[in-house]
Amino acid sequence: MIWFDRTGQLLMTRSLPVIQPASLTPEGRKPAWLKVRAPGGPNYMHLKSRMREWNLHSVCEEAHCPNIGECWEEATATFMILGDVCTRNCGYCAIAHGRPVWEDREEPERIGRAVGELGLEHVVITSVNRDDLADGGAAHWAATIQAVKRHAPCCRVEVLIPDFQGEAPSLETVLAARPDILNHNTETVPRLYKYARHGGRYERALELFRRARAWAPEIPRKSGIILGLGEEHQELVATMRDLSEAGVSLLTLGQYLRPSAGHLPVARYYHPDEFAELAAIGRELGFAHVESGPLVRSSYHAKRQADAAGVSA
After folding, report:
1. Structural domain boundaries of the chain?
2. What is the pTM of this model?
3. Spatial distance between the Cα atoms of 181 and 152, rounded to a whole number of angstroms
């Protein structure tokens, strides 16, 4: 296989592994490498109980993450702030869509206490899109980051933020709270944005990273792409290159899994060898770390990803 950049210059050549027909398994018959053990261990049950007790949401549950059993058994969870109803309706996402009515001014403090009580060394915080709020929820974001740092000063805080509709002051508010990693998922290639990311804009995502690099260059930037929505290989490599050039240093690549029959279909399943190949391409494009695999999600092994890239709290 041969790749060229946009100017026609040779980027790299490599022989791709022979992919077995299982990578094209039709919808409803997932390949064997996507099977996971059902959650239910003692640590999982304990964390689930505590999340209920603290009245906190996790994207692990809301997004039907396949890794919830593994992560929660290791006492690792991704907290989701600003409620569990999103103002956008992306075709791949399991989180509920509608008009949010939720407001909880005490949530940042509860999350800070929870992180401190769990003794976490790395925490990931994300949120629904709150396009109904003037600042997109940025002030709430900042309060949450500050609460975690107050209750768990040695904990590394990774934030997986929305695009705030491109509003620069909202991004500045989050950066001013000094998260240790700034993450925003690109999700797919630009051609598929209208198809999959309702309300999202590809150029807006890239601009978010450019602004973050200019305003807080010391904060590492991270993004994620889900595979299997119908992207072409060359589009995927071009998107990875765009992210690298915009200042992203950490990248996650994972397989799209259809949450329900009402969501976008899976165009195809990628073989683990293909994920390994894409990780190698990512490293050659300059990413400090690429986490790539069928079950990889933005927060999957997030601590290990940050450690591998040398990110300190």
Report:
1. 36-308
2. 0.83
3. 16
